[in-house]
Automatic annotation (TrEMBL):
It comes from Dinothrombium tinctorium. GO terms for molecular function: nucleic acid binding. Coiled coil: none annotated. Gene3D superfamilies: Ribonuclease H-like superfamily/Ribonuclease H. This is Integrase core domain-containing protein-like protein. PANTHER family: CHROMO DOMAIN-CONTAINING PROTEIN, INTEGRASE CORE DOMAIN CONTAINING PROTEIN. It comes from the Eukaryota.
Amino acid sequence: MQEFATSNKGYKYIITIIDCFSKYAYAYPLKTKGANEVTNIFKKLFLEVCLEKLRTDRGKEFENKLFETLLNKYDVNFFTSKDDKIKCAIVERFNRSLKSKMFKYFTSKGTRKYIDILQDLVTSYNNITHRTIKMRPVDVNVENEEEVFFNTYKATSVRELVKKSFSKSKFKDGDKVRIRYKLNPFDKGYNPNWTDSVYTVKDVLSRHKRHLVKISDESRRKI
């Protein structure tokens, strides 16, 4: 949003926050990504809501002593993704929805000023039925949390969800496989996705939704 700063009182960024369970979202404009400004945003947020856990990306605005002190004050369990490439799909989806609403407004009004209507856009999002939870985020509360859980996970409890999550691996001992290269978004489309070498599956270990597959090369050396 930096290109629109002159139309928005110098605000260059928008920090977005979402409750992963209720899908209730928040958005605040920022002039910088400095620790002071971001920490002040969360000070205001913590006066409105009680957070037990918070996950963010690995930005310096979150990984600093000032922010850490605030989290400790409110006893918030804080963690980040180990891999910088891993994003939170839920908040990224909200970001797309927010930008879509914003640019529709830009087109209809012939402006790039969002600072005065940002909270209206967020309120609109929170008052529209979310397809995952099948109700409006603003309507989620303690009384209907079991309904929200079922609509989201198609299970009535965490225990049932974990049981359903165990699935059979598509691999078995003796299968021949190739390993997929870890590509980044800037790799050329013609670069190969898979290794030329073929490996043999030696063992399959079930780990919740994912399976650990042990393989060996032609010399029977385990990889």
